[in-house]
Write a structure and sequence with these properties.
The structure is a homodimer. In chain A, about 35% of the residues lie in helices and about 30% in strands. The first copy, chain A, contains 7 helices and 10 strands. In chain A, helix 6 links the parallel strand 7 and strand 8. In chain A, helix 3 packs parallel to helix 5 and helix 4 packs across helix 5. Chain A is globular.
Chain lengths: ~230, ~230
Amino acid sequence: LIQVTDLRREYRVGEVSVPALGGVSLEIGHGEFVAVMGPSGSGKSTFMNLLGGLDRPSAGRYRLDGEDVTGLSADALAAVRNRTLGFVFQSFNLLPRASALENVALPLVYAGVKVAERQRRALAQLERVGLADRAHHRPSQLSGGQQQRVAIARALVNDPRLILADEPTGALDTLTSLELMALLQELNDNGITLVIVTHEHDIAAFARRVLSFRDGRVVEDRAVGAP
Amino acid sequence: LIQVTDLRREYRVGEVSVPALGGVSLEIGHGEFVAVMGPSGSGKSTFMNLLGGLDRPSAGRYRLDGEDVTGLSADALAAVRNRTLGFVFQSFNLLPRASALENVALPLVYAGVKVAERQRRALAQLERVGLADRAHHRPSQLSGGQQQRVAIARALVNDPRLILADEPTGALDTLTSLELMALLQELNDNGITLVIVTHEHDIAAFARRVLSFRDGRVVEDRAVGAP
Ligand SMILES: Nc1ncnc2c1ncn2[C@@H]1O[C@H](COP(=O)(O)OP(=O)(O)OP(=O)(O)O)[C@@H](O)[C@H]1O
Ligand SMILES: Nc1ncnc2c1ncn2[C@@H]1O[C@H](COP(=O)(O)OP(=O)(O)OP(=O)(O)O)[C@@H](O)[C@H]1O
Ligand SMILES: [Mg+2]
Ligand SMILES: [Mg+2]
């Protein structure tokens, strides 16, 4: 499903070039469950943003489901993103003036789904993460963990084949984290591919493969858990 | 240092009233190291915002260092906050158009410190959290864990007597989290009072007392660790 070849990303800050991602080459197959770990600043979010088509590499190639997406226009990339994947951002990226329900429904607006159907599906996802009673709160009227769960619900609402989640349990207590992982596990059992950035080993334990980043490179790539 | 009596906070959302904090009564002495735990949405951040003078209770009283702060004007509250405490927000709250250095120096601007001294002290705190080489990056040019560390450095820069930290290791990998806790431990050894919200038991283990929240109330208050 995912194939990256010598993927690189440098940022310019004033006159300096920050090498956020060195050459990363790897493949992730359909239905895999991969955990991404590594120190703060090691390139995990940069890598996830490239996988999610939210950013373009400085060099290297990225094939998603057999199609080279490296050269696509912004619009074409947005269309692929909308129909194929769900993204949970490290800092949630919710629209501040929209309610939880409207935030969760947003991918369905892009997908051309009619309003009554959007509301029904968005509410179903909110129920799944235990937030049906917060549907009309705006993000500033939600706790940190509630905002995170709204971001997760939004990533699920369009039935994506691939879920990219950047620290999805960062703001959640242990019990809520385990409930979320059980939900993600169930999605994976049904064939959905998961790539999850986490710094918690208890969360990484749900995955079947762990990629470890350090200084913008993958330094370890191992299978974990029961076969 | 901290004394709250029947502290309550309700929010209005449309026609509904959300009881975020029921009556909380407790005291925290000088030099204590307290961990605050509890499920998502149980009132932890609401409680911390009240302790930090960033919000006013709907009912109840709050004495900080012997002074009733419940009735203070916004300006008087800001002055107390600036000279007494450092606050690490769950969502960092960094100024997006300012560099890491400028963000860390901000409390010193309010304290009337001159520019050269501000820069020196801000850089010292950035070094402490391992980010001297990111001093001129803006928040959007930093990783999640780097933004969190800038928020921590900002909370320390004015040598506060009380540090209120809401999930300060939420975006940090294990090693960086432990380095941060060692730093906070050292501050506590030097007499600084710490109140830390965390959902990670490994982090709570550094504290000597744990407050557990559920549905807006403190349901458990116990001493932990070696005497
Ligand atoms: N501004 C607001 N308006 C309305 N309701 C709010 C507001 N802020 C918080 N709430 C509600 O108050 C309750 C407590 O929120 P709080 O942020 O204190 O929880 P928390 O314990 O910090 O949770 P988390 O661990 O997820 O950060 C939540 O149910 C939340 O929906
Ligand atoms: N827009 C940007 N401009 C400049 N440098 C950036 C930018 N975004 C990230 N960086 C730098 O690139 C490096 C990698 O960042 P990235 O966000 O990928 O790290 P990360 O592994 O996700 O870290 P964390 O665990 O803290 O979230 C960091 O050193 C960061 O300072
Ligand atoms: Mg990151
Ligand atoms: Mg909170």
